Amino acid sequence: MATILENIKLPIKRNKKIPIYVVEEHNDALQFIYSAIGGKKLPVEGTVLLHLDAHPDMLIDRKLKGEDARSGRKLLPLLQIENWIVPAAAAGHVARVVWLRPPWAKQFSDGTRKFHVGDHPETGLLRVDSKEPYYLSDALFSTLLSNKRELTLTVEELSCETSKEDKMKNLLAKIDITQPYVLDIDLDFFSTGNPFLGLYENINLYDRLLPIFDFPLPESDDVETLEKLVESREQQLQELENLFEHLDKNNSLDSYTGNKSHLYNMVNELASVVLAEAKRLNEVPDWWAVYAGGCTRDQDGLPYHISTKEEIKETVDKALTPLLQSLPVPVLITIARSTDDGYCPPHQVDYIQSLVLESVMKVYDTDEPALYYLNVNIST
User: Fold this and answer.
1) pLDDT at position 270, please?
2) Which parts form a coiled-coil structure per UniProt (predicted)?
């Protein structure tokens, strides 16, 4: 029995050199983690993900079913950049996530927490029992879970200040990285854009979306209160999705047959302003882009910090490299560019990538990086 358990926890094979995979969209990193599991370089269960990013990427598609999360590689086409980690945890492949954030990213408070991910018994949809605002805002909270898995999330800041000896020792003690683990780096950790800030900026669209998509958190966090909140939030999000789906198809809400609620009135008023601006620009509005921007407006919106070239190099030299030198060796390394979607500034991404690769390859014995983003149409 002990041998069986050891085989579950430990990888059976080791890479001669650490592979590095560079992707564009961050969710594409997961296929290489799954391949490492299939190749017995990672265990089927219990992997640690060390995630350096300006965003947690730990949401769940509200319509993703638990059975899909456990469907192996069939899951991959269903994922997006913000929701690829928790489904892997639902399948048991990832047991712990360590999110190292830059100083300007504060979607979670620092520290360690445990929660469960599993299936809602009535709908089969994947949900978590975490009371974090991050999950409440997407109506993802539920205490009623089947097929549940425990997930440990540790959040800590990584900055140039961390390189000071006592602070690095303190950080290492808090994150407690053990093998086997995957080192996962998003280049927007070093400089972070917000693509929605430039969407119809002449009419201040991003600010206009706030009162439409925002919702107040309750003072109490008892389960009954949160369940009512989630039900109300789900209705709000579904109504907004219906409204923007109608706009996408008809470019107007004139023929909308749904509930003419206060939310309808706010979206209708916004639509008239957006249509006028789009007409001025001689273009057709991208209503799903407007909707996606609105979905980021809850809880203070997305992080935004465009670093200088000097700041980027200093962060690599004084934060990333000392961290890597202090860690055990990872099984594999994934790097996301995140520039096509505007999160890593396009004019900086190649510079950041070169510095990060130089740092990683200096510290570890690695293969030549596999630049997957240059061959995104290959079969996976």
Assistant:
1) 98
2) 223-250
